[in-house]
Design brief:
Helices cover 58% and strands 6% of the residues. The longest helix is centred in the N-terminal third of the chain and has 27 residues. It is mainly α.
């Protein structure tokens, strides 16, 4: 067996975080955090705790990028194309993760009663300007991604990613081909009316 000795030793500090009043029937959260950052005052401790809290968001981000948008299956022929694709997927992933956080929806895909009611209302009243635009966007993304609006149906990250992609495709089409869409609408309505008269 071969042993490797480190070139330099690293001084570590330990921060212990324990939940003072856990919910009834739950064990208190207890984190034992090792860090090379300084631990001199409460501000330092708060910073270390915040960094640890953000680890879960980093894990969620990579889950979205890897399993949701399939970044590992990407087949392109140069680094510049990979970088461009990764930038676009990162923006989409961050949007998906942040919008749930902004709306105070839980990290899980299951909706609580308040979130479910909020989304149902936004979906039924998509043009109601008294409902914040971010809630209406979220509701539309969920529907476009395959959420059926039923209480038991979760709004998963995959659902949101599918919905985001569909919404961006629709916006792109409206932006780049508005004249075509107007012409197509007239043509289709005319043909539908002619067919119904027969």
């Amino acid at each position: 067996m071969t042993y490797f000795s480190p070139a330099d030793y690293v001084d570590l500090n330990i921060v212990v975080v324990k939940e003072p009043e856990p919910p009834p029937g739950r064990d208190p959260i207890c984190w034992i955090l090792f860090t090379s950052l300084p631990v001199i005052n409460d501000s330092d401790i708060s910073k270390i705790i915040r960094i640890y809290e953000l680890r879960w968001q980093v894990e969620c981000f990579f889950k979205v990028i890897k399993s949701g948008y399939g970044i590992e299956e990407l087949r392109v022929d140069n680094a510049e194309k990979v970088a461009k694709h990764l930038i676009l997927m990162s923006i989409a992933a961050v949007f998906i993760l942040n919008i749930k956080k902004t709306l105070r929806f839980s990290n899980g895909s299951k909706l609580d009663d308040e979130a479910y009611s909020t989304l149902r209302n936004a979906n039924k009243n998509i043009n109601d300007e008294s409902i914040p635009i971010e809630i209406r966007i979220f509701a539309r993304i969920a529907i476009l991604g395959g959420w059926l609006g039923r209480r038991a149906d979760p709004v998963s990250t995959l659902t949101l990613m599918k919905g985001w992609k569909t919404l961006m495709t629709m916006i792109n089409l409206l932006t780049e081909a508005s004249e075509f869409l107007s012409e197509a609408n007239i043509f289709l309505n005319k043909n539908l009316n002619n067919n119904s008269d027969r």
